């Protein structure tokens, strides 16, 4: 954490307002942070930096826990049906410059997710295949590797079962799933498993920045 000058910190009656783009700290956040630090606290600038760091962590966790997925998700979701051709999947992703999308069945229930990683691994048979590796191989062969996928469908290449999240779950829950499952997007579903939105790491980042500006 960068050094905090005295004029960067303002103490108020209800909390502490910190650096730009940081959430406002409540008294509860500060008290919780104080409990994290062992021993006697001499309120020097060095001690305050440590206290501030702990308090910010508690504040962010509190805000992420209280922020619901339905309030930050994207409702206009680009998706494809399980029977969509490979060409259709590519066109759908290219139309919105996205790197992945949910796959739904005839009832609009989420059955999988197609990402760049799914496409690359299908081409190379390698889970760690990259765009540049694919491009390099295409340049060195007479027939583009992409042509081998022209007969497959979204259902053939998607990752399934889909990792999803409910609209009333918290942003903190989404962050945990992103980290645990090493993914970048979560289809948002209702109680019947039907697609109602999508939440990405970008949604979480934007929500965090908006909180910091308040």
UniProtKB/TrEMBL annotation:
CDD domains: CBS_pair_BON_assoc. Gene3D superfamilies: CBS-domain (3.10.580.10). SMART domains: CBS. The keyword Glycosyltransferase does not apply. It holds the Pfam family CBS. Keywords: CBS domain. Transmembrane segments: none annotated. Residues 73-130, 158-214 form the CBS domain. InterPro entries: CBS_dom, CBS_dom_sf, Diverse_CBS-Domain. Coiled coil: none annotated. PANTHER family: CBS DOMAIN-CONTAINING PROTEIN CBSX3, MITOCHONDRIAL, OS02G0818000 PROTEIN. This is CBS domain-containing protein.
């Amino acid at each position: 954490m960068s050094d905090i000058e005295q004029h960067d910190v303002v103490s108020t009656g209800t909390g502490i307002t910190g650096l730009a783009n940081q959430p406002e700290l409540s008294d509860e956040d500060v008290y919780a942070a104080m409990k994290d630090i062992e021993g006697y606290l001499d309120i020097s600038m060095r001690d305050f930096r440590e206290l501030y760091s702990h308090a910010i962590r508690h504040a962010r966790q509190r805000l992420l826990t209280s922020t619901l997925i339905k309030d930050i998700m994207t409702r206009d979701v680009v998706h494809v049906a399980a029977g969509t051709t490979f060409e259709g999947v590519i066109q759908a992703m290219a139309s919105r410059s996205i790197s992945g999308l949910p796959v739904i069945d005839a009832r609009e229930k989420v059955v999988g997710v197609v990402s760049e990683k799914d496409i690359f691994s299908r081409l190379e048979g390698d889970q760690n295949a990259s765009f540049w590796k694919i491009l390099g191989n295409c340049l060195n062969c007479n027939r583009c590797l992409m042509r081998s996928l022209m007969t497959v469908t979204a259902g053939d290449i998607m990752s399934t079962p889909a990792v999803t999240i409910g609209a009333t779950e918290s942003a903190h829950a989404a962050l945990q799933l992103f980290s645990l499952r090493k993914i970048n997007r979560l289809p948002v579903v209702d109680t019947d498993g039907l697609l109602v939105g999508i939440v990405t790491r970008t949604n979480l980042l934007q929500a965090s920045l908006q909180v910091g500006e308040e």
